[in-house]
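Regression check, iron/sulfur cluster case 376:
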Amino acid sequence: MATKTQTQKEPEKKILSVKDQGFWSRLAHRRIRLLRLSVQISSFIILNAGIFGVARTFIPLPISQPTGAPFSIVWGGFEAIEYALTNSILPFFALGVFMISAVLVGRAGCGWVCPMGLYQRSVGAIPTKKAKISKPDNKDLNGIGGFLMALFLLLAFGIGFMNLTNLGNAFIRMPYTPFDPSATLFGSIFYYSKFGNSPPGVGMDFIGDVFSLYTFMFIFRIVIFFLVTLLVMYVPQGYCRWFCPTGALMGYFSKNSILGISRDPVRCTNCGDCETACPMGVPILDYSHKKVTDSMCTNCGDCIDACNYNAINFSLNF
Amino acid sequence: MNIRHRFSNLIIISIALLFFALAWNTEELDGLKEIADLNTENFIRWLEAYISGFPKPW
Ligand code: SF4
Ligand code: SF4
Ligand code: SF4
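Current build output:
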C-alpha cells in the first residue's frame, strides 16, 4: 500500500514545480524577465548615447527607435527604408539588416532592445484589468500592422516616384513618423517642451505664432500617443501586436528564425501557463513542440519563466 | 527545422547579402550618413542655442 502511494507521487513534477516555494524559486521564475529588463534599459541608454556626446551613425536597426530622437545614435529601420524610398533610392541596406537579423535572432530586437517595447512593458505593469482577446481576434488584428507597413511603404515609394519624375516635390521624407507613438514619445515631446512651436531649423510655423501647423501636428501626435498608451494599459504590448509596421516587417522573415522557442514534449503537461504569460498572445500550444513559428513571437522568454516544468526554452534551429 | 525552412532561411540570407552588395553602389548609405551627420549638427546647434539663449528657443 505504502509503495503504491509513493509511486503515485510523481516525484519529477514535485521537484520541478517551484510555485510558492520561497524567494529563490520565485526569483528563478523571473530570471529571464529581470535579465530582459536590464538589457532593455541598457539598450535604451546605448541607443541614446548622444547624450554623452557620441555622434550619430548611419546604422539602421529593426526596432522602433525614432531617428529624430534628440540623443539617438542609430536609424529606426522602418524610417531608414521610408527615407530611402522617398528619395527615390531602393532601400537595400536597411532591408538587408531586417532580413539578416530576422533569420538569425527572430524578433529579439523587439523583445530585448526596442525602446517602444520597454515603454509598453512599463505601461503594461500598471495594474489594470487586462482585456481578454481571443486567439483568432489577436491574429486578425495583427494584420493591421502589415497593412500599415504596406500602405506607408507604398506612400513612400509614391513620393519617391514623384520626386524622380518631377511630378512634384513632396517634402515629407518619412510618412509614418507623424503617426508613430515612439517618435512622439522620444522626439516630439522633447522638442516641443524645449522649443514650443518655433523650433530652430524646422520652419513649419507658417500659419502664425498662436496655432501653427507645428502645434497642430504636435496635438495630433499626442492624441495618437495617448490612445496607444491607453491600449497598452489594457492589452499588453498592444501596439506591437497589432499596429507596429517595423514588427510586421520583421514578422515576415522571422518565422523560421535560428533562435527560437521550443517545448520538451515529454515534460510539457499542456497546462497553458506559457500562453497566459505571453505578452504577445502567441498560441504556443498550437505550434509544433520543435519551434513556435509565429510571426508575433519576439523571443522575449516570458513563457520560459512561466513554465513550472522547465518544459520550454530557447533553442537554436539550424 | 525541416529542409524547406533551412532553404527559405538560406534564400533570405543570400538575398540580404546581395542587398548589402547592391547598397554599396547606391546612394542609400550616403543618404543615411548625411542625415546622421546633419542630425548631429542640428543637435549641437540646438544645444548651443539652448545653452547660450540665442536664438531664444524657449
Ligand atoms: S513591434 Fe513593438 S517592440 Fe517591435 S519594433 Fe515595433 S514597437 Fe518596437
Ligand atoms: S511548456 Fe507551457 S503548457 Fe507546457 S508545461 Fe510549460 S507552461 Fe505548461
Ligand atoms: S512565445 Fe514566449 S518568447 Fe515568444 S513572445 Fe510569447 S512569451 Fe515571448
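Comparison notes: The first helix of chain A runs from residue 2 to 8. Chain A has one domain: 23-316. No diff flagged against the previous build.
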